[in-house]
Batch of 4 targets.
Target 1
Amino acid sequence: MSVQDHLVSALVRDEPRVLTRITSLFGRRGYNIGSLSVGSTETPGVSRMTFVVRGERGIVEQAMRQLEKLHDVLKIIDHSEEKFVDRELVLVKVAVDRETRLEVRQMAEDFRARIVDAGRQALTFEVTGDEGKITAFIEQMRPFGILETMRTGRVALIRGSNADIASHVYAGQTQALERMSEPLQPRETGTWEGDVG
């Protein structure tokens, strides 16, 4: 089986140490996370993690099954199952001088890059796009001298409305759609309404 990158999202409870528990699961089993992005969602108390896992298909499916067993994970979305839109942001600081400044700026315009900081010897660009665009921009800037880069990692959403999303996208027995239909409410015991088992 071929080794490739797989884009996966997880909806998780926004609680302390959730990120540590999830990344530890990958680390203990030898899975490599290529990139990881975490942010809030439209539902209070729920965050979305999007990560790229490199490995064989069977390895990734095993990782997803392990994630589903975690109390903090509400839903797993395998983006290989459906069409999706993804974006990444990068900041790139490029060395410039009198001779190269104009050329660098013109080349950056082709990528719709935005200058966020300008100095005598460097320009810092912000670029948003899919992985291919980000990589291409970095490679175009490399001959001029890249001083620093910072990539956010990929974020993704399935195309269309939630009603359009096929049920097989939500693998496992998490019953996430039902559990997410109402806001999570803390119990006096410190657990959450809607917990299973």
Target 2
Amino acid sequence: MSAPSGDDVEVVLVKAGRTKIRYPAALLHDDGSHIAVRAPWAAPGVRDFGFVRFEPGDTFVEHYWRDRWYAIKEVYAADATLKGWYCDVTRPAVRDGAVLTVEDLDLDLWVSADRGTVLRLDEDEFAESGLAATDPEAATAAVHALDELEALALSAAPRGSQLPLTFGPRSESGRQEVYDVP
């Protein structure tokens, strides 16, 4: 893994052509393909999905790729306990200097820390988005990305394992790289 650079970036999440949210993040890694950043929960207040709560004090270690149609966000509680992985289906990430732009394509996957819960999310929003009609190639790539994420989540490690999902880069020894969570 490249050493944390200490640089800050601004993550810009775009949805349906509009900026949904933008927030500062610490750049942990950028090898030209994979970008990892660390950021606190950026939205105001608590967001309770029923299967997980995102709240002030949570930390996200977010993994983006310039050549993959998804982003994977490791979600940690304030006490550094892993809550799970929130996976967004996106167009490949674009970094221009200190700005990292990611276009959300509605489909999501939640994987609990113990891998006991793997949930496909927002398939109805994706269908309603009209992407299949306006950009069929992107829609196909998005569906394939969700399928790939689900397959990775289900095969990554035995349920109950605390090992990270094997979405991120591996060291030369083949072990998963780990990014410190404050």
Target 3
Amino acid sequence: MYRGFTVILVTCFIVLITCLWSPPALALTQIKLSNVTYHDCSEALAEGAVTSGSTMAANCFIVTGKAENASNKPVYDADIFGRIYDANNEPVMQNRTRLGSIAEVPPGISDFELRISVPANQPTPLRLKQFKAAGFSGQVRR
């Protein structure tokens, strides 16, 4: 009986100490993306472009827009999600909605840009849909 009480007491003590000294949680902060558009890459960026995992020729584009961070803190490592379709309404990035990231989004509204490669056989104009981002309120260790 005495041993069981000691185990419960020690367990409660460990839980209490862990709660008091736990590191702060890094919650995801949602970033609203607007005015999302694209343009061709410069020749220097586009030279030798191939699609991921292959040697198939690709067209290079820069996706740009505005990122709105409504929190009062910078957001780090914000992943950009969205869907891109070609002129025939076919997906450009099969089974992939994470398109890239923004290293830092300051509070307020700021510009962002993202480089993408699209297989050369997919017709333009591209349609950009459902763009959003989410990042962390503190630096994420790498």
Target 4
Amino acid sequence: MSAFQTTALPAGEVAPDFTLPATPDQMLALSDLRGQPVILAFYPADWSPVCGDQMVLYNQVLPEFRHLGAHLVGISTDGVWCHAAFAHDRGLHFPLLADFEPKGEIARRYGVYRPHEGTSERALFVIDAEGVIRWSYVSPVGLNPGADGILDALESLAGKRDVTKEAVS
């Protein structure tokens, strides 16, 4: 396996817990969100064009995510001050967590860290209310993966279907 290859945690794995800064003075733990589905959206960098488009899209789709009972969390290796400026500039209404120090520790746990760039893959995880990954997807870094896969996975959870046995397109 080369240093550039990553292996995202697959459906059926227990999602590794973590606590990361959401603001300069507030932390958020994955375990705080237990009891409802969680979407983890790892992305490479706040101010890149594709990342900006992706996060703005998720902000627009946020009412649908919430209607399906899910909590959305963005994660990158940028710091909290960078996240605060980016979220304010883009009008984002969901937390952006700073996987900043130790750099990329949470991205590593999820198998999506890019060590040569010091960033994460553009990776999505849908975690069920019990903390089990039910869907994961790694998009090419230069492509916005959209929201369809996330919505399909959340709808599968809401319908009590096992997304690990279904093809999610």
